[in-house]
Every structure is written in structure tokens, then in C-alpha cells.
Amino acid sequence: MKKLFLTLALAFVGIFGANAQVWIGGSTSGTFNKEVTRFEIAPEIGYSFTGTPWTIAVGANYGFQNVKLVGDLSTTTQTLILSPYVRYSICSIEKFGMFLDLTGDFDVLSDNFGYRVGLQPGIAWMATKHWTAAFRFAFVGYNKCSFYGEEGFRFGFAAAAPTFGLYYNF
Fold first, then answer.
1. pTM of the full predicted structure?
2. Does domain 2-169 have CATH number 3.40.30.120?
3. pLDDT by residue (tens digit) across 121-156?
4. Are strands 114-126 and 96-107 parallel, antiparallel or unpaired?
């Protein structure tokens, strides 16, 4: 599995690297409270189309979740989720921009195939020519992935715990 990801990443960089529109990076998020401890790390690689507001990317999201039950009992879950998405940059003002991601998350480790499809708005800060920080703070869509909670349509706003990503633009 690692060889497949490495091969895909190298092919992606090789194909698009000459135009200097490729970026790599990733994000992390976590939820920590009395009942649930959840942590995610998601490396990403993407390609921005020159002269357009469009970007495509794919990430591999590793997640760990521990839910406390009654007494000292708890349950632990680990997942590996492939997360391709298409990003539309809505607007940019100086070093800041707003974007909207159309994302699809696919759980490849679970016995029953889980997925999540929806929209995620966010804000990007272009700190330098090469470094960008991105904050995703909501999700609107359909969830059938047990790692993200109950099945069904979701509207989630996570201003207190946004997903933070840091990216290097070639």
C-alpha cells in the first residue's frame, strides 16, 4: 500500500512539476473531551490550474478514535481514508482567500465500505510565495462513514476545532 501511494505521488509530481503549480502539504485535526479522543493526520498533494480558480488534490487521512464507554471500558478505532477533492477559490484579498472544497472521503480499511461526500468551506493565508496555511471550518453533506459519526445528512460547523493545513507550493 505504501508503494502504491509513493508511486502515485511521484507520478503526480513528475507530470505537473514542470509548471510549478504542484503543492504538497497536509492537515491535522483533533477532538479531545471526556468521552471522545479523536486525532487525524492527512498528507496531501495537489495541482492548481494556472489562470483559473480550480485546484484538484488527493489526501490520505489516517484517523485514530477512542470512545470511553461505561466505567473503564472503551473502544478504539483506526481508519485510513482516501480524500480526493476539487477546490474552487471564491475570492482573494491581498494574502487571504476563501475557498470551497467538494470532497469525497472513502474509508478503505473498514469491513463495510464507508464514505462521506460534501462541501467544506475554508480560508487560506498565503504567507509567502511558497507557503500557504488553510483552515477548513465546516462540513455540509452526506455521511456514511462510521469514523465521522452517525449516518445521514450533516451540517457541521467547527469554529472551535477547525482543520488546519500547511502547504508548500513549488
1. 0.73
2. no
3. 999 999 998 999 998 888 889 988 776 777 888 787
4. antiparallel
